[in-house]
Design brief:
The structure holds two protein chains of two kinds. By secondary structure, chain A is α+β, with helices and mostly antiparallel strands. Chain A contains five helices and 17 strands. In chain A, the strands form four sheets. In chain A, strands 8, 9, 10, 11, 12, 13, 14 and 15 form an eight-stranded antiparallel sheet that branches. A four-stranded antiparallel sheet of chain A has the order 2-3-4-5, with no helix packed on it. Chain A has a three-stranded antiparallel sheet with strand order 1-7-6, with no helix packed on it. Chain B is α+β, with helices and mostly antiparallel strands. Chain B has two domains: about 100 residues, Rieske [2Fe-2S] iron-sulphur domain (Rieske Iron-sulfur Protein, 3-layer Sandwich), CATH 2.102.10; about 80 residues, Alpha-Beta Plaits (2-Layer Sandwich). In chain B, the strands form three sheets. Chain B has a six-stranded antiparallel sheet with strand order 1-10-9-4-3-2, with no helix packed on it. The chains are: A alpha+beta, B alpha+beta. At the A-B interface, helix 3 of A face loops of B.
């Protein structure tokens, strides 16, 4: 049942660069598929020859295995003039796709996991912020999130207090909007598109749309890639591997309001793929 | 749960953390700055992170993920995201029994009695990719002829097994105290011979 639900979402299965070297053999929701380029006209097929719908969006190739897919969300800021859009490649992580999203929504780990980059002791405090499930869009939003960061982005010099907004538009996607050091009136956009290989294996596609004229493309992609590799050391060592939805299994604190809302939202939607439903 | 040997005292100095497995349970064993030792379920109650990746701050163990501190009783003493908050007493790492005798660290899930206090000295603790049965067979086979490097009666060799998963055994070897260094080297070679034979048999 949880698999049936998951099949009707769209998932990134390639970026615009990775198909240049030939088709990508991969796995989505335990189904082996082949993504064949070029990205602008990609095809997705399984080993029985079934062909699945394709969209090119956010510099990634998206597909769905379901018969009645929910519409793919939008990130309108990505199209704004002057932004540089950076698909950062793929990181394989042996974790639940939902644990990967939850970690992306978490700031309290910055000083310990991304030490001296996204956070540093003694600046560990998480101030109160706002969390809501927006009814009109049925998305989880966390706003007015603030955190002190020694090097918030490739373009940041000294430490700054960074403002964040977080958004979960689909169970395996998280988007953040954060202070843009060279352009204070705008926000950088960073997202992760998680391709659920199975309930316990994830291919994570980080993507950015930034105002940054100073860094090279590969410097920006490398920065984000390094951050995510640090997250991997956490994500592969959480037990149980699947995300527990029973609130008794893992004890949250105030800083975890986003995670609490995300777990409730998954439960309400019935998005159980990658989740542990009972206290088992 | 039986009391199981999971390592040597000398391999866990103050301020260090190690991962241990016994009777199907994943554990973290760590030593505070003041020298006291603790063994817990290897899971932070907050977000399930393995505490064996954590770090020691004074007499507390901190989780690597969000830096939550736990004192030796397992109680959470600090949540860095809210430094002024008194953590609720319900946030607690699950404790196991741990004792040290004769330079060996023993753990148990309950208040199992400590093993007989022995005067033996630890030689080595190592992992063998073989079952306990295969290891015991190898111990017998490599000891039978009495030729070097096989142990002699005066070595008082004792081999302790901790089966950690099918085909994987943690082995702790003890000897008489005060053996001369050349004798310890010989017995160390015997440990290697025993391991090779056990693993060869396992893959055969």
């Amino acid at each position: 049942m949880s698999l049936e639900y998951a099949k009707n979402d769209w998932y990134a299965v390639a970026d615009i660069f990775c198909l240049r070297d030939g088709p990508r053999r991969t796995r989505l929701l335990e189904t082996d598929i082949t993504v064949t380029g070029p990205a602008e006209d990609a095809t997705v097929t399984d080993d029985q020859g079934n062909r699945y719908p394709v969209q090119l969006k956010f510099d990634h190739v998206w597909t769905t295995l379901g018969d009645s897919p929910r519409p793919l969300f939008d990130i309108p800021e990505g199209d704004e003039e002057g932004r540089r859009r950076v698909p950062c490649g793929v990181v394989r992580v042996n974790c639940s796709p939902l644990r990967a999203v939850e970690n992306f929504l978490d700031i309290a780990h910055f000083p310990f996991v991304h030490t001296d980059i996204l956070g540093s002791e003694p600046h560990t405090e998480v101030s109160p912020y706002k969390v809501a499930i927006r009814e009109e869009s049925d998305e989880v939003w966390a706003t007015q999130v603030k955190f002190f960061q020694p090097q918030a982005a490739k373009s940041a010099g000294d430490g700054i207090v960074t403002d964040y907004d977080y958004r979960v538009p689909a169970p395996t996607v998280a988007v953040l909007y954060k202070t843009c050091p060279p352009k204070p009136e705008a926000q950088d956009v960073i997202a992760i598109f998680v391709q659920p290989v199975s309930e316990t294996v994830s291919d994570v596609w980080p993507w950015m749309a930034l105002y940054d004229d100073a860094s090279t493309f590969s410097e920006m992609a490398q920065f984000q890639h390094e951050i995510f590799v640090q997250d991997r050391s956490i994500l592969e060592n959480q037990r149980p591997v699947k995300l527990p939805l029973d609130p008794k299994m893992e004890i949250p604190t105030r800083a975890d309001m986003t995670s609490v809302a995300y777990r409730r939202w998954l439960k309400k939607r019935g998005a159980f793929y990658g989740a542990l439903r009972d206290g088992a | 749960m039986t009391t199981r040997p999971v390592g040597l005292t000398r391999d866990l100095p103050a301020g260090r953390v190690m991962h241990a497995q016994a009777d199907g349970k994943d554990m973290v064993v760590w030593r505070a700055t003041d020298g006291t030792i603790a063994a817990w379920d290897n899971r932070c109650p907050h977000r399930g992170m393995a505490l064996s990746h954590g770090f020691v701050r004074g007499n507390r163990l901190a989780c690597l993920y969000h830096g939550w501190h736990y004192d030796r009783s397992g109680r959470c003493g600090l949540i860095p995201a809210h430094p002024d908050l008194e953590p609720p007493a319900t946030i607690h790492a699950t404790q196991y029994g741990v004792v040290e005798t004769g330079g060996v660290i023993w753990v148990s899930a309950d208040e199992a009695p400590a093993p007989d206090d022995s005067d033996l000295a630890p030689l080595r603790s190592f992992i063998v990719e073989a079952s306990e049965d295969a290891l015991r067979d190898a111990q017998e086979a490599t000891s039978a002829d009495g030729a070097p490097p096989a142990p002699e009666a005066s070595d008082r060799v004792s081999v302790l097994c901790n089966p950690i998963e099918p085909g994987r055994t943690q082995v702790t070897v003890l000897t008489a105290p005060g053996l001369p260094l050349p004798r310890l080297r010989t017995l160390s070679r015997w440990c290697e011979a025993m391991r090779r034979q056990a693993e060869a048999k396992e893959t055969a």
